[in-house]
Amino acid sequence: MICETIRKGSECAFMTKKGCSYNGGVCYEIVEQCSGCSRSAQFSSGWYCTSFPEPIRKWNSGHCNMATHVSLATETASGKKINPLKASKRGKK
User: Fold this and answer.
1) CA 18 to chain centre
2) CB 1 within 8 A of CB 16
3) If I label 48, which of 5, 15, 55, 72 is the partner at 20 to 30 A Cα–Cα?
């Protein structure tokens, strides 16, 4: 449904006919780690995440899984030798 409380005019999964069903009935503003993300949007009352009502909870575990401005580097086993024959077979898949 369309949000009628904080993020007016945007689609919200927590909005019901009775109002916002999220904890406390409000969305929370983005945190510092969210700056630069394409999922943050400015509304009349401030900057909010378009994916989550409480962005700080996503950053508690280290990083937000929906953040578009953070790239996760895949760590390779440094110090271990990689068999070139197996590596070439993996590349073909």
Assistant:
1) 27
2) yes
3) 72
